[in-house]
Amino acid sequence: MNVESLAIADVKLLTPKKFGDHRGFFAETYSRKILTDAGFHDEFVQDNQSLSREQGVLRGLHFQLPPFAQAKLVRVIRGAILDVAVDIRRGSPTFGKHVSAEITADNFRQILVPAGFAHGFVTLTPDTEVVYKVTNYYSPAHDRGILFNDPALAINWRLPESAAILSDKDRKHPVLAQATDLF
């Protein structure tokens, strides 16, 4: 598995090796040892899966506060997403900055988003399925978000803002400057 740091070094892009023949392929999609060697020491406790029927479904930007903060290891098993991680760690030299990566079933990449980041993605194709591991259980009392189109973040979601398909919850998140609960 190839592991590389993105522009914010704590966010990692992982590309598993595929071994294929006429029958299909085999791949090791998760290795605790490889992540430990890359400096990630948290333990994943749960796997989640989402299906987005339409292109342009935008989920995020989400995070959970301590003690229920979550790191995520995200991959796509069908379709394609643009995945975004925003550093919300006060005092970090990259606070308020973001990184993004295209994660697709075809490119087989995964993104490792550590705790302390708001996370979101937009579907680039219809019928996109995303699976991700998390390091903590969902806690409604600790669930927070940042508005996806916060002008200060200047995230290029690769679609017109009016075309984004959002939940009511995601439309109501505060901008980063007004978010009182961060890391």
Structure overview:
The chain is mainly β and 183 residues long. The protein is built from two helices and 13 strands, in the order ββββαβββββββββα. It has a six-stranded antiparallel β-sheet with strand order 1-2-10-7-12-5, with no helix packed on it. A five-stranded antiparallel β-sheet has the order 9-8-11-6-13, with no helix packed on it. β3 and β4 (24-27) form a beta hairpin. The longest helix has 6 residues, at 32-37. The chain is globular, with a radius of gyration of 16 Å. The two termini are 30 Å apart. The model has no long low-confidence stretch (mean pLDDT 97).
Question: How are the secondary structure elements laid out?
Answer:
Blueprint: E1 2-5, E2 12-15, E3 18-21, E4 24-27, H1 32-37, E5 46-52, E6 58-64, E7 72-78, E8 80-87, E9 98-104, E10 110-113, E11 117-123, E12 128-134, E13 143-145, H2 168-171
Antiparallel strand pairs: 1-2, 2-10, 3-4, 5-12, 6-11, 6-13, 7-10, 7-12, 8-9, 8-11
